[in-house]
Amino acid sequence: MKRTVLVVVHTGRPAALRSAQLVVDRLTAAGLSVRILAPEAAALNCVGADVVPAAPDAAADAEMVIVLGGDGTLLRAAEMARPAGAPLLGVNLGHVGFLAETEPDDLAGAVEQVVEHSYSVEERMTVDVTVRHNGTTTDTWALNEGSVEKVARERTIEVVTEVDGRPLSRWAGDGVICATPTGSTGYAFSAGGPIVWPEVEALLMVPISAHALFAGPMVLSPWSVVAVEVIGSSAAPGHEGVSGWSQTVGGVLWCDGRRSVDLAPGARVEVRRGVQPVLLARLRGGGQDGATAVPFTFTDRLVAKFGLPVAGWRGRTTRGAEEDGKEESPADA
Length: 333
Prior knowledge:
alpha+beta; Tumour Suppressor Smad4; 2 domains; 7 helices; 19 strands
């Protein structure tokens, strides 16, 4: 079977269009079949690429999905890659781009590694999200987070949270985020949550601007089931009793900022570990003196993406490492 790659592009960025044309040309020249999405085909104008509908099965039987854009574009591509079990390779043309694997300057080398099949694949935990209300059920999922939020800036939303079938706390605020380790560097981090290394299996619950003493971020077991029950939405101080201010407004559930479900008062949102992960492609290679064009550890990514100061760090010397030898394993301790 001929190797196939789906290319997904943020067509609003001229740099993404130029990069996409380079990717398509190099992949087709190497004998790979390339697919592009119908809504993006006119902007890309790539000869030799197969045009497919932007549907959940767009990546069916594809070896990989190459994404040119920011994290938002990658999250859009994940909706097609996840059901196909195809890994995502992100080329960062956005801002922070935590999910991206390579930068535009490294694009030619990245495509070469794809052609040579010189990459590994890692799994990223997802969450399955279920909304229950008045006997109806709506199912969705998220790679980064599912967030229960208020629907108007002048209001707060009241919720009560539950972990593993037991009530935890009730508070009013802007909402609550249920995130994965992958999502810990996104919305959850902006709301004051901790950064969790992606190899760690856990669920995060992060209140958003909660009016409560006990409203800190929490790290839970990956096997826990978190529930958020919507009590309702309250009017801002000074607006109580004002005509047009209904007390029956609920909230909204957003998954990865892409899929939403309206939440009436009384709705219940359940979040649990996802059955199907999202796959990310990781390139192989390195540079001289330990420098690499692409950071290969999560720590390196944090330093690079946030511009963290590391001046003065000496690290472990080669001589010291040789003298100490290998670290003692737990079995030998």
